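User: Continuing from earlier, I have the next pair ready.

Assistant: Great, send them over.

User: Here they are, in order.

Assistant: Folding the first of the pair now:
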Amino acid sequence: MPSDKVLMLECGGEDYGAYFLTRGFVKWLGPDRVRMWPYKWTHEGQQHRYTEWRRGSEVLVAQDGQLNYGPYTSGAELWQDPAYYRAWDPDRVPQANVTMDLPCAFIGSSCLGVPYEPDGRIFEMLDRGEFGLVVLNGARWHNAAALTELQATFGSWMPPLVFCDHEDYPQLRWDFVEAFRPCVYFKRTALCGGHPLANPAGQQWDLHIEPFPFSSAWDIPWTPWKDRDIDLFCVFGAKHPLRQFVKETVERVAARYPELRIVAQVGHPMEHSAYMRALARSRIVVDHQSLGTDTVRFWEAAAAGCAIVSDLHLRIPSPVLVPGCHYYQYANDPSVAANGQKLDDLERILAELLCDPASCARAAQACYAAVRAGHTNESRARRIVSVARGQGARLAALQS
């Protein structure tokens, strides 16, 4: 039997990056060649919403950059009982540690069509050699506990393993590497050099680390520049306290040009479909994440063909998006304490761009084309297989 399927080991909580990647494999290989374990009912539109908070432990990042845990129950307690991490049901195991698991409604459709397989059937498929690749799809305890059980059961008979870390923090998870020995580590928030968290100490393994930011899940037709009726768009959730200052900076620059059409708001003020329609009508979009790590907003704006002004300072896989060519880059936060970001660059860049609409249009078109060509959910899935092959993994059967 050909080993032509991919096993996605999913976490119990909400994880945009994990959803994007599973969606990418489904679009590439088709749903019949993808399996999820533990099964993600929200990905299939069969569970509207889980309870938001339950007992357990949360991963914390200290100011010194070290990862720590704040347990309310012991990790061992959660890992020892498969009922906590298999096809998880919050009503069956109400004391399990799960934050929130919501459908990624902003994609437009949350149903992937991946067949449900009972726990025992997943083990049978592994035993029969049906999987050519196992993806640890997130740095969470649920899928890590599931992988621990699989490796204890199958040992060296396990298919090649890759680790995809979709977390916001830039620190590398050497604890996961040591525990599971993946052939490649894909890191969403791989900061560019120069930041104190970009090259963390402690690497003990000869392991390829591949930058792996979010990608575009949207197929938005190009809107001609002359038809866009919003000059400057700056709409944020209220997650980061500096975003109010970003908004005020944008408004201060815009006040110099009374004829500008501007939308500037903080606090999830727009329903998402209205937000996406507004993006497609916008010329310049301001993005913010402080450290310079990833936001969904950046990829939404790229898919909508906007000129993006961002503090993004991530390493991006090929095709590389170049500041000044594909988007405009202002300073990110250079401090470990995350309290040192300055917005002078943002003010200067906005003032220059508002006087040069032709440059905005060129950058927007270049970014739009590059993202559609090589930064979709599907292209991320293909890249995983390509990079794993390059590191020696035998994945001959994994072809579309």
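And the other member of the pair:
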Amino acid sequence: MPLVEIQNGSLADPDIVNGNFDYLDDRITDTANRIYTNNTTINSRITNLQTYLEGQISANINVVNGSIDTINEFLDALDARIDELEESPFPIPEKTALIDWENMAFKANVADVRNINNTTTGIKAYGGDYNVLHSGDIYLKEDFTNYERLMVVWCDDSGAVLNSTIIETWALDFLLSQSKGRTSLINQQYAANYYWGVWGYEYSATISSVQYQTNKKFFFCNGQQNCGIVEIYGLKNNRGE
């Protein structure tokens, strides 16, 4: 029933008063139920929103973790490739110039035995032609077998052609120790023959007693030559040791 107005100063009927209390009680109960229902709805929506956000955050974390895994895989592959390159059987070797130009100039009594000087190509080389050096003896700063290979950089007698020959030092040492004749440092054929032959250890000692050094592997005794020597480099591969 609706709320009944009671006039001020009048005596209210008990039934009316009780009815008004019942009405207010119903309204309070109804309001409380509505608040409860709304709270339940709000809590449900909060729960749904929380679940959605947790799902989105989890998904994004998975994406980030996936990206991190991909990056780590890339870095691992890169490290493996770097290791592979460092262990490659074909690294760029370290080279050391071996010819003792100062000693040779002193023995020949000249400022510089490199008598091929082409100003056009910039090539400067030793062409032999000094009797005291047997027209082509070569003195080294150290034992050539300290190196794995030799790179003999050479040119023609005019300094117009530049090339190189790679020699395994163990093989050269073996040939020089076996041969009583000449062994080639250079043997190339283009328009003309370019060569530089050196005598084996045994024969060198018999014809070069004055020039021959204590260590026979510091010295190449000229046998016959038809080119110029720019430099002889000792080569060592850098294996990251």
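Worth noting for the second one:
The radius of gyration is 49 Å. The chain has two domains: 1-87, 94-236.
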